[in-house]
Amino acid sequence: MKQKENITLSVKNVSKLYGDGCAYCAETDAVLDKNVCPECRTVHACRDVSFDLHSGEILGIVGESGSGKSTLMKMLYFDQEASRGSYHISDYDTSQSNVFGLSSQAKRQIRNEILGMVYQNPVYGLEMDFSSMSNIAEKLIAAGSRNVGEMTGTGDHFLDKVNIPLNRKFDPPINFSGGMQQRVQIAKALSNYPPVLLLDEVTTGLDLSVQADVLELIKEIQREMGISMVVVSHDLAIIRMLCDRTMVMLNGEVIEAGITDQILEDPQHAYTQQLVYSIL
Amino acid sequence: MLSVENITKSFTIHHLDQTRKAIGEINLHVNKGEFLGIVGRSGSGKSTILKSIYGTYMPEEGAIMYHSKENGPVNILEINDYELIRLRKTEIGYVSQFLKVMPRTTSLELVTESLLEMGESKEHALEKAKDALRHYDIPESLWDNYPNTFSGGEKLRLNIARATVKAPRLLLLDEPTASLDNDSKLKVREAIARLKADGTTLIGIFHDLEFMDGLCDSVFDMSDKALRYVQ
């Protein structure tokens, strides 16, 4: 079972409910009104989502706004608690315990040492009033680093990598443009070389040239550091370039999953077809 | 090496409530080192066969048995995603007339990249990539340029270089000579002759098969969604 050892993350039957749920919507095949239970009005933000992420793989997630992509990412990063399901991280624990059930201290350790997260909105990933360098240092200190010289070296390296002029490294991100804030966020997430990186709409709102830089950077870090990634994006062109495999979400559920060119060239589900026909 | 057994592929278009049959009960057999050519009108389903072999399309019926180097005979329609990705990275290549690349990736980086994803070392990959570019007449002055500035013929040769640098056991060519001038077509022909001499198994779709004269071991004509043996 060589492939089994290759699995970095494994998510099984993960659901997120806003509301208590009822006997009707507890059934896995219950028909909902989009993602709302017609009986008890509980919102099923994510419903029975399962997937594996292999070592060094970039997995794409596409879907419209409100399909549950970001909720899923937030559960993976412990920003939100899952209502149901299990989550295994092989770098944390090879005995495959469900990390959803761990103490908040253990979850913090996973966030600091194993996972990197880049949010759609930089406000969630950065301390906007701290300098960019302090933002990176904060992450490195949380991951156990204590040597100031080493930390500033790492900060310089990653800020330079994402094209932030080093003469502005002590400026707080609040003074930066949206694109620059996003790049500082990426530098921060990368700074402790996490084996798993979660990227939520990271190129949205960036101009084309910066977008190309970010894509190049993502490819480079995958290749050179072997980092596994989950990439959420509206942009199918980006998914095509980055991801070997892709999942399509609609109303909180995974409606289609497969190799990216299968999804893009032979989409099975009506919604995926609409999505593919909309590519410019 | 490869047996396509009775495959049928239809496309369901949900918003029109239509199902279109692309190919029906197709059978093909290619031995190791052979070159099989397919001709036929546009829209007859030639590319559907190739894309099914590559795993881009999933036919609803039949089997595609490929004799893999590492795992022996496998059915492309039944293997899991990771095994198919592995086969594509190491054994099966696909060349179309289009070149889809990351923005701002140079031609040298592009070819190097396909070796790096096979796990080659950086130095080794770079040397091999340079050899491949020379081999397919991409002048050194273009190595640091972006492929979207290339001519049609240069793009195509780059595409072939990228696919063949990995020395695939099976190479699928989807109209690689379409929209090329005679000179460029001859260069593609030379490239294919070299691959064949190296023992690569090839399946190719051509509008103008006369260019491949003497190279193909067998030729099929695709019409009315069915294959007919020509020679």
Automatic annotation (TrEMBL), chain A:
The keyword Secreted does not apply. Residues 31-276 form the ABC transporter domain. InterPro entries: AAA+_ATPase, ABC_transporter-like_ATP-bd, ABC_transporter-like_CS, P-loop_NTPase, PhnK. PANTHER family: PHOSPHONATES UTILIZATION ATP-BINDING PROTEIN PHNK-RELATED. Keywords: ATP-binding, Lyase, Nucleotide-binding. This is Phosphonate C-P lyase system protein PhnK. The keyword NADP does not apply. It comes from Salinicoccus halodurans.
Automatic annotation (TrEMBL), chain B:
Keywords: ATP-binding, Nucleotide-binding. One of its GO terms (cellular component) is plasma membrane. It comes from the Bacteria. One of its GO terms (molecular function) is ATP binding. Pfam families: ABC_tran. InterPro entries: AAA+_ATPase, ABC_transporter-like_ATP-bd, ABC_transpr_LolD-like, P-loop_NTPase. This is Alpha-D-ribose 1-methylphosphonate 5-triphosphate synthase subunit PhnL.
